[in-house]
Specification:
- By secondary structure, the chain is of the alpha+beta class.
- The chain has one domain.
- It contains four helices and two strands; from the N terminus they run αβαβαα.
- The chain has a two-stranded parallel ribbon with strand order 1-2.
- The radius of gyration is 16 Å and the shape is elongated.
Amino acid sequence: RYMARQNGLRTPGAERRAYIVLVAGRTRGENLFTGIMPTLRYFLRIFDFRIEQALFLRGLDGADDFSRDSAAVDAVRDLAGSSGW
């Protein structure tokens, strides 16, 4: 895929959807995830992925934080369901 793209070749309909979950220990920061999104978008484009949806979870730093946060678990479950998984 990468070499084909470098040579200007693209397969119609080859673009795949990416569903992103980003997690941060910090609870604040208006632009906490802003910087990574363009980098992630450019990286995924090399492999013919486009970001369909992104989920940003904050304040999950400890080993059990995710499993204790039912809203976060539900959000990831919903995202996975919308992706077809």
